[in-house]
Amino acid sequence: MNRRELTANISALIQQMIAEGEQPILDYVLRSTEEQQRLFKAGLSSCDGITKKSRHQSVRAADIYLWNPVTKKVDWQWDPAKAEYWHTVWVEKYGGDPMVVLKNGKVDYPHFQ
């Protein structure tokens, strides 16, 4: 998916999320090399930003977090069932890739590419 397709599809996904009662927050659409290296060193990405670039570095991925109106805080880690639902929508309706597994073995629920 190129940058324009990602922008259109992420926008449509966010509109659908809102229509279904979610309060999505778009984050990390463009990531610098320095930020990518920091995340890699912290074990939060399998891409080092130089040898293996992240799709965030070329605006071909976005992270979406959800606002929790009960706690009045951002849910940084998604509920797995909710993540499974939205990633299924992303793949089947918008042609996105399946969920990404990080080098630490955890699933990157907020990541859409």
UniProtKB/TrEMBL annotation:
Matching InterPro entries: Zn_M74/Hedgehog-like (IPR009045)
UniProt-recorded name of the protein: Peptidase
Lineage: unclassified sequences, metagenomes, organismal metagenomes
